[in-house]
Design goal:
By secondary structure, the chain is mostly helical. Helices cover 81% and strands 0% of the residues.
């Protein structure tokens, strides 16, 4: 019966997504939903997209294994990203009337920088989207008592998300995530109410966590620990700002004020509600310590689903798994669409033809890229499953590439008039050239590789831009000198 209700939920989600497809008449509808969405839809999209598999499964597992400090990247860094984007980026970018975040790099620095940034942004999504379909595989595996393997579940989940995202685009994301946000909030609050009744309230769970020093947050007061702490915060706090999914939600807003406050309020709601799954998972210590011991040794990400399945009534299980599927699918659909749009608009469009691509051809090409990218995501998820990569780790790793390559050119392009194309090239090149070798040769170094790459990207932007400005001033001086002639020289010339 539980599996039957879950599949019914999947059918309803597909139906909503297919209905949304009827609103798509051109590429702009597909990518930005016609820039017509009200604040409650934008807030729901921001919240539901970021409240993903890592929030319900990955973050609680990390908290159980480590402490509150282990969550510095997510939810702390993730919420920081959304608030910063809303306050400092949304309004400026919305006024530019762009189709993708990659369009900014073209307008500010040129086509080549656009292509480099577009490829980097798209690649960064492999980890995030793969984390969602990995979580779908885990859910199907748990629900079927192992009859469906996690690998088979990954393929089923990817196919479902692809189906309604492929046709409806941003309209499908908007309508399904609004529906899914309602299920997420009401469902998890209901489950929390039931679980708190089994633990004697919220206070005993918090007291148990305090006694086991789970609320330890700040790092040790030494340079190495502080750098690692700051790096964890900035990897998602800064690295996820130059992302198409964040931009796309703000850009689909009806006006710039909605773009700003829909993003900010979505980030605040995400941070506040991320505490609920942590509470649910940690409650297992009081409800069933043996279950905790077993799944902490085997796979801590399965602890919460197994707790619900083993200790709550059928209706509560239906609600929980419906909410969990809402969490995963809302994130997966949005994060599948975002890189596909970036690749189609900012990379392939320029390679296929130098002429203007018709709107219908652009729409068709974008849908093809969505399909191909979903295959790549599925293959990466299966590879990560084989190598036992955790969901939280997959999401955290996703933002390293955009931190070292795309963030600095975005900030400098918006807030520093002297930023130049050479500065963007050096920022991207020096960031990647520093980060990648360290990632392979010294991943546990005192200075995290992505943080070193970020610092070098800032240096590259400043050095390249100042060098260009100096060269331009020198060239202007030489031109003025050549053009200047004295009155005596003019007389001889006459």
């Amino acid at each position: 019966m539980l599996i039957g209700f879950v599949f019914l939920y999947l059918v309803i989600s597909i139906g909503i997504g297919m209905y949304a497809a009827t609103k798509v008449h051109n590429a702009r509808d597909y990518i930005t939903a016609g820039r017509s969405l009200p604040i409650y839809i934008v807030l729901a999209m921001v919240f539901a997209t970021w409240f993903g598999a890592e929030t319900v499964l990955g973050i609680p597992a990390t908290f159980m294994e480590e402490d509150l400090g282990g969550l510095i990247s997510d939810p702390f860094g993730a919420a920081l990203c959304l608030v910063l984007f809303g306050l400092f980026f949304a309004r400026k970018l919305y006024r530019m009337n762009l189709l993708t975040i990659g369009d900014f790099y073209r307008q500010r620095y040129g086509h080549k920088v656009e292509v480099i940034a577009g490829i980097a942004i798209a690649l960064s999504y492999l980890g995030w989207v793969s984390a969602q379909v990995t979580a779908l595989g885990l859910v199907f595996n748990v629900l079927s008592d192992g009859q469906i393997t996690q690998a088979q579940g990954i393929m089923i989940g990817a196919a479902v998300v692809l189906l309604y995202t492929l046709y409806g685009g941003m309209w499908s994301v908007a309508l399904t995530t609004f529906f899914q946000m309602i299920i997420i909030v009401l469902g998890l609050l209901y489950i929390a109410w039931l679980v708190s009744g089994m633990t004697g309230g919220v206070a005993p769970v918090i007291e148990h966590a305090v006694q086991n020093e789970k609320f330890h947050f700040w790092p040790e007061m030494n340079a190495v620990a502080m750098v690692a702490f700051i790096s964890g915060l900035l990897t998602m706090g800064f690295g996820s700002i130059p992302q198409q999914d964040v931009f796309q939600r703000a850009n689909a807003s009806k006006n710039e004020n909605i773009a700003v406050w829909g993003t900010v309020l979505g980030g605040v709601a995400y941070f506040a509600f991320a505490a609920v799954p942590i509470f649910l998972a940690y409650s297992a210590n009081l409800i069933d310590p043996e279950l905790v011991t077993r799944w902490m040794a085997e796979d801590s990400q399965k602890l919460l689903p197994e707790l619900v399945k083993g200790h709550l009534p059928l209706f509560a299980q239906i609600v929980f798994y419906g909410a969990l599927l809402s969490v995963i699918m809302s994130t997966a659909s949005g994060t599948l669409l975002a890189p596909s749009v970036t690749l189609a608009e900012n990379v392939l469009k320029g390679w296929i033809t130098r002429k203007n691509v018709s709107d219908q051809k652009m729409l068709l090409m974008t849908r093809w890229v969505v399909g191909i990218f979903s295959v790549c995501v599925t293959l990466y998820a299966l590879w990560a499953l084989e190598h036992a990569t955790g969901i939280h780790q997959m999401v955290e790793n996703a933002y390293k590439v955009t931190l070292v390559l795309a963030f600095t050119p975005l900030v400098a392009g918006l807030y520093w008039k002297r930023a130049t194309t050479l500065g963007a090239y050096l920022a991207m090149g020096m960031g990647v050239a520093t980060w990648l070798p360290l990632e392979f040769l010294a991943p546990e170094a005192d200075i995290p590789p992505q943080f070193a790459g970020f610092l070098m990207s800032v240096f590259g932007m400043v050095a390249g831009s100042l060098l260009t400005n100096f060269a331009d001033r020198h060239a202007d001086t030489q031109r003025k000198t050549r053009n200047h002639t004295s009155p005596g020289e003019m007389g001889i010339g006459d």
